[in-house]
Automatic annotation (TrEMBL):
Residues that bind CoA: R39, R47, T83, H84, D105, E150, K154, L164
Protein origin, superkingdom: Bacteria
UniProt entry keywords in alphabetical sequence: Magnesium, Metal-binding, Transferase
Protein name, per record: 4'-phosphopantetheinyl transferase superfamily protein
Domain 4'-phosphopantetheinyl transferase N-terminal: 27-93
UniProt-listed SUPFAM superfamilies: 4'-phosphopantetheinyl transferase (SSF56214)
InterPro entries: 4-PPantetheinyl_Trfase_dom, 4-PPantetheinyl_Trfase_dom_sf, 4PPT_N, Enbac_synth_compD-like
CC annotations in GO: enterobactin synthetase complex; plasma membrane
GO molecular function terms attached to this record: holo-[acyl-carrier-protein] synthase activity; magnesium ion binding
Amino acid sequence: MIADILPAWVASAEEFGDVPEETLFPEERPLVERVADRRRREFVTGRHCARRALAGIGVAPVAIPRGERGAPVWPDGVVGSITHCSGYRAAAVGPAEAALAIGIDAEPHEHLPEGVLPRIAAPAEIAALTALRDADDAVCWDAILFSAKESVYKVWFPLTRRWLDFSEAVVDIDPAGGFEARLLVADPAVGTTVLRGRWTVRDGHLATSIALPRG
Ligand SMILES: CC(C)(COP(=O)(O)OP(=O)(O)OC[C@H]1O[C@@H](n2cnc3c(N)ncnc32)[C@H](O)[C@@H]1OP(=O)(O)O)[C@@H](O)C(=O)NCCC(=O)NCCS
């Protein structure tokens, strides 16, 4: 699913089940020593996907520590992103000479819980969902919007090391499978205020992605 919405120069891997904890590198084990079983499984399989994706760009298996505010620490010369949700885990990586940053996010394909939408979307974004619903009411557009903003943050944070609020990006969804996020704050590390991404829905899950090319 995730490969369908990424450019050819990005390598990715996904899993619909979990792999054994033994696949973790020794230095990663302390990161999940005292967490709930569900969290351990998603972390373990997320790291496994990350190493499979790294293999796709010719990078040997390495530990992927957890960096500032939870962002994964990729080997030198690599940018990437990890996501997991119930029944799905994925990672995407690319060479830093081609990409400034990559952000991916997956969610169950279901509507956001009551009360969440007004906290993550501006009135204009909420109004746009009505038109999308009229075009196709089988897609949970509110969840696509949320996921697109998570992908935006996963591109934004590794570059800027700064928080980005949900109100600081305005997402315009194209029903054909794309989206455009307009950043209301600028940062030289990002180099643009318009991020273009893609979305897809398949077998009960949705995914969004942004691969920000260098230059
Ligand atoms: C960090 C965040 C984006 C993760 O998204 P999520 O949907 O909750 O969870 P996902 O499973 O998709 O992603 C989790 C993975 O994201 C990665 N991640 C965590 N923090 C990160 C950060 N600051 N920057 C980049 N990647 C990060 C990690 O790899 C993590 O998995 P791991 O802990 O097993 O390594 C989210 O929890 C968050 O804090 N959002 C608030 C900020 C935001 O979205 N602003 C909107 C801007 S428009």
